[in-house]
Amino acid sequence: MRCDFLQLATRGVRGLHPYEPGKPIEELERELGISDIVKLASNENPLGAGPKARAALGRCLGDVSRYPDGNGHGLKAALAERLGVPREALTLGNGSNDVLELIVRAFVTPEHEVLYSQHAFAVYALATQAVGARAVVAPAHEWGHDLEAMAKAVSERTRVVFVANPNNPTGTWVGSSALGEFAARLPRDVLLVVDEAYREYVADQDYPHCTTWIDAMPNTIVTRTFSKVHGLAGLRVGYCVSDPAVAEVLNRVRQPFNVNAPALAAASAALDDEAHVRESVALNAAGLEKLSAAFARMGLACIPSAGNFVSVDVGRPADTVYGGLLGEGVIVRPIASYGLPNHLRVTVGLDEENERFLCALERVLSRLGS
Ligand SMILES: *Cc1c(COP(=O)(O)O)cnc(C)c1O
C-alpha cells in the first residue's frame, strides 16, 4: 500500500493551505492567447527597479558562480548608516517573508499563541500554522487593526504579535501614539513585530518610527522589504531591525546564504536611489487618488489606503468581477480568503494601467448589471 505522506507531515503542516499568489501574466497570456496584459495584483512597483539597482545587477552577474556574502556585510553597513542603527540590529531575509518566518520558527512552539488582526496579511497565519501554534485573531475595526481589541487578546501564552502597518490587503494603518501605547502595555517577553512593507508610501505625519523604540522596548521587531517601493520583488530581499540579542537568535535559524548575491548588490544600490523612491511614491499618490475618485464616481466604496494598493467593494461576490476582469486582460486580486468576499484589491499602476483597469471594471460591472 502507498504511504500516506500527508499523515507523515507534522501536525502544523497538515493543516496548512499554501499561499495563493497573484496570477502570473504568462499564465493569463497562455489562457487567453493575448498579450498586453495589465497586472495589478501583487503590489509591485509599476516603474520597476530604479536605475541604480539595475546597474548594480548588471555589474554583479560575473560573480554568480561565487556564494554570496552570508553575512550580507555590504547591505548591512548601508542599512546601518541610513537607519542609524548598529549593524548587529539587522537581520537580512529572502524577502521580509523569510524574516517573518524566522521569527516564528525561532520563538514560537505549539504551546504558544500568535496574535494578529482579522484581515491581516496572510503570511502571519501561515507561519503560525506551520509551527503548529495557536493563532488568535483579534476582530478588526473598520477593516483596520483594533489595538484595543488586540491588547485584550494577549494571554500568558502569547509569544508574538504581528501588526502590519500599513496592512495588506486593507491599506489601513495605525498612528504613533496608539501603537506606542499598545507596545508599552505588552509584556516584555511578547515580541511585537511591526511589518512596515509599505512604510515609504505612507504620507501621514503621525506614522510611527518604531525603530527608535527598540532601545526602550527591546521586544520590538520592525520588518521591511525591498519588494515594494524599491521594485525588487523578484530578487527576494528584506530585513528586520531588532535588539541585537533578538538578531543573534534569528541568525541561528536562518539559512547560511538566505539572501542571494544579485539581491544584496541591487538592494544596496536601491537604498541610495532616493530619486527612484521619490518618483515611485509620487506616482503612487497620484494614482491612488485617481482610483479612489473613480470608485466614488462609480458608486463603489473603497477602504482608505496608505499603501500602493486599494481594496474596493464591488457590491457583490467579487470573484465574478475578478473573472470578468481577467477576460479583459486585467489581473487584480480577489481577497475573499481575507474575509473580504466583496472586495478586490488593486495595485496602483502606471496611469495607462489604472485607466485600462477602470475601463475594464466599468464594462464588467455594466455587463453584470448593478
Ligand atoms: C508584500 C508584503 C510583505 C513582504 O514581501 P517580501 O517580498 O517577502 O518582502 C510583507 N508584509 C506585507 C504586509 C506585505 O504586503
Question: Short description, anyone?
Answer:
The chain is an alpha/beta fold and 370 residues long.
Structure description:
The structure is a single chain. With 370 residues, the chain is an alpha/beta fold. It is built from 14 helices and twelve strands. The strands form three sheets. Strands 2-8-7-6-5-3-4 form a seven-stranded mixed beta sheet, sandwiched between helices. A three-stranded antiparallel beta sheet has the order 9-12-11. α4 (51-60) packs antiparallel against α11, α5 (73-83) runs parallel beside α11 (261-271) and α6 (95-107) packs across α10 (244-253). It starts with a helix and ends with a helix. The structure holds pyridoxal-5'-phosphate. The site of pyridoxal-5'-phosphate has 13 residues, from α6. Pyridoxal-5'-phosphate binds at residues 43, 95-97, 121, 164, 168, 195, 197, 225, 227, 233, 238.
